[in-house]
Amino acid sequence: MIDLKRPRLSVVRQCTLLQLNRSGVYYRPVPQNEANLELMRLINAQFLETPYYGSRQMTWHLRRLGHDVGRKRVRRLMAIMDLRAIYQKPRTSVPHPEHRKYPYLLRGLVIDRPNQVWCSDITYIPMRKGFLYLVAVMDWHTRKVLSWRLSNTMDAEFCVEALRDALVRYGTPEIFNTDQGSQFTTPRFTEVLERRQVRISMDGRGRWLDPHLMRRIMTCRRHLVRG
Question: Which residue, among 215, 167, 221, 169, has the nearest Cα to 194 in the 3D structure?
C-alpha cells in the first residue's frame, strides 16, 4: 500500500494517512535458522495429533524428544505457524430436549474407505462486530471437507444446506456422525439422512473434541478468515 517512489507524497505522510507505523515499511523478515525449522516441523507433526496442545504442553513434548527449548521460544514459533490450541469454547451445540438422540455407532469401527462415515460440526469465527458460525461436512476417512456454510445465526437451515450440498456432490455415506446439538437433531436435518437410508450416529454428551475433524474445520476457518 506504500509507494516509496511517490514524489508528491512522502512515506511519512502515506503512513499517517494509512495509520501505519513507518518502521514497518522498511522491515524485512529474517528467515528462520535450521534449528528453528526443525523445531517447527516437530511442532507441526505433534499439533496434527494433539491440536489441544498449547505452548506449555508443546514445550514439554519437545523436551521429551531431547530438545532444550524454553516456552517463550515455542510460543513464538507456534505464533509464526499460526497454531493455536483448540479447547472447549462457548457452546455451539445445545441439545433440544424434545429431539430424538441417536446412539454412537463408531466405537471400535474400522473406517477404511471414502463415503463410509461422514461427520459434521459447527465452530464460530470471531468478527469485528460479533460472530459468524461455520458448519462443515467432512469425510472421516479422507479428511476432505465436502461442503461448508456460514451463517450469522445458529438456525439449523445452514446445516441442512451444507448436508444437501455434500449429498448432491459426493453421493451418500453409510454413517453420518454429529454431536447432539439441536441443529443436527432437528427432524429437518435427520429426515434428509433417513430418506437416503443413512445410519445416524451421535456423540455422547461431553465428547466435544475430535482432533481430526476439528483440525480440518479450523484449517477451513483460517482460510475463510484470511480470504
Answer: 167
